[in-house]
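Anyone? Bumping this.
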Amino acid sequence: MMSFGWSLVETTAQLLEGDRREAVLGDLLEAGESAWQALLGILSLVLRLNFAEWKSWRPWLAAFGVSLPASLLLMGVSLSVSQGAQRLISPGLDATALPLLFCQTLLLIGWAWSGGYVVGRVSQRTVWMSAVAACSPCLFCLARFHVLSLSRFCLLLFLPPAIWGVRQGLRRTRIRLSSMILFTLSLMLLMAASWNSGGQRWWTPRSLVLDATLIWPACYLVALAWRENHNKWQLGQEKATI
Amino acid sequence: MLGEFEYLVITAAAGLADKAYGAAIREEIEATTRRKCSIGALYTTIDRLETKGLLTTWMGEATTQRGGRSKRMVKVTAKGVQAAKSFYDAVLRVSRGASWATERKGTVS
């Protein structure tokens, strides 16, 4: 029967990926290490792997290039969608707001999903840090939310599509180039339609920066899908030559 | 150029040949250097060397001694052999004239 110490070691080893966990636990058992030594060994390995990860640009991009700014902006969009929905269901229905609400809802889902996918895909091992980077502005805004007619959780409408995106990114779900081009073009069209309906000026520097922050993950996905297609094509060519 | 610990890992793996895997390499390093080798340092170094193309690894057989868990087998690539040789040559060159090296005549060229 496994001792409590080794159960703890096994649980901690869940922080490692499948094959690595198998090899490390086997090595520790073979070396006859005590549960305490094994636990320290595994913790030191997990820490070292995480530190090694941060030497690359990927976790920085995922946490501070996508998670942090996108969560901040998407909370604003979530609030805008919630207020739009509230106006629609309130007495004296304003039907002209419906197209704008529709555009904003689709944009919210598209932006959040693409951002989440990029975060999950770009840096799998440090996804926890991206989650912390996304949660910090959320907690700050939730604590200072003072709109009486709305629940403060309406700020978090972007979370379900974002989590869905992260899950797909972590699983490296294949993305098709044609679908991604269509997806990105649709987002751009919806953005244009949203500016038009809302009577906003998209050419101001502020609008351009905000829109670029939200659309670039979708553009990145197009580039990623193109690269995957290109690699596949190259592999096919190499096989054909052999 | 390789780091000191990277050189130790490559040399131990090369010496163990087809019996090179995590626990065996660790034991070899501890026995020859008389220093504790942490599993964290070993596996992050193996990962780094594999990324550099100096080692290849694959999952090997499982034994009862290991609680039925597989070994991560290690093999030094030609590039790894070359990198270790360059490191060794550099150590020999830099050691010329050092008192501890000249005391052991015949072992240093």
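Late reply, but here is one note on the structure posted above: The first strand of chain B starts at residue 55 and ends at 63.
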